[in-house]
Amino acid sequence: MTVSTEFQATGGGLMLDSAILLYRTPGGHGAADAFASVHSIEDQDGRPAIAAGEPLTRAHLRQWTKLLGRAAPPEILPENVLVAHPDMLVWWIPERIRAAHFAISKPADDLKALRQRTTVAVPYPAHLLIATRGRLGVYALAVNKRPTAETVAYHSPVLNVFISGSLCWGNIAKPKALAVASIPQYEAAVFDSWSTHANHGQDQAITGKGGLVRLWDALAASKAKTFPVRRLKPFTVHRQPLTVGKLIAGSAR
Question: What is the pTM of this model?
């Protein structure tokens, strides 16, 4: 296979300096099956060529991370932000009473407050949100304080969240940037959209009878001030509760 690349000078004063080549065994996975080398660039008759290389080291990575990081301006992070990374944003939201929008499809006759399309104030438990390039994870917290890596995460009772923890975007506009400034847009996607039904399996994410719609109906009808966190179920994988630290580590893969 022959690969050709055309290079053109730019006004920014940048020049081709190095190349990194990545190797792995066919179908292999894991660090044991991978190798990387870094190569200088030579001039061959006016055209750049990749020279012999050497194994890529942590020193090389630190050097280029430092150079590339200069393009990212420093910012002061709000207290609610747990992780701010180019590929991941994690923050928590304290419990609060919010205006929620319900338009329940095929409402049951015994609903008291949600039989018709309505906006009503209801209490929400504390939440953990994990935004990555591919998804927005939405989880509840049983304790209303900044979580640590060991804090257990719970299924969110928000109706437009899949049992997997991912937000069901539907026709909701996705934020264009994965940045702290986009947090209000992510939160609006979760809490300001219209709720029509529980997603498949969501009723099994809480304890007690009646399911999520009846739970929200009871909270709205009684004008409750706090969410009954005792009804939340831990978010589990293979029946093992996941902590905030494990969720973050899993989302980074």
Answer: 0.75
* Residue 75 domain-assigned (yes or no): no
The number of distinct structural domains making up the chain is 2
Domain range spanning residue 56? Answer: 18-69
Backbone angles phi, psi at 19, to 5 degrees: -135, 140
Q: Is residue 42 part of a domain?
A: yes
Q: Are 36 and 91 found together in one domain?
A: no
103/209 same-domain check: yes
Does residue 113 lie within any of the structural domains?
yes
115 and 236 part of one domain: yes
Between CA 231 and CA 221 the distance in angstroms is: 18
Q: Which residues contact 120 (CB under 8 A, 6 or more apart)?
A: 99, 100, 102, 113, 114, 220
Question: Is 37 inside a domain boundary?
Answer: yes
pLDDT in tens, 136-179: 999 999 999 999 999 999 999 999 999 999 999 988 999 989 99
Contacts for 226-229 with beta carbons within 8 Å, 24 or more apart? 226/95, 226/123, 227/95, 227/123, 227/124, 227/125, 227/157, 229/125, 229/140, 229/142, 229/154
* Percentages of the chain per state (helix, strand, coil), in multiples of 5: 20, 30, 45
For residue 1, pLDDT beyond 50? no
Burial 7-34 (b: 16+ CB within 10 A, else e): eeeeeeeeeeeeeeeeeeeeeeeeeeee
Contact 170, 160 (CB under 8 A): yes
Q: Judge if 116 and 155 occupy the same domain.
A: yes
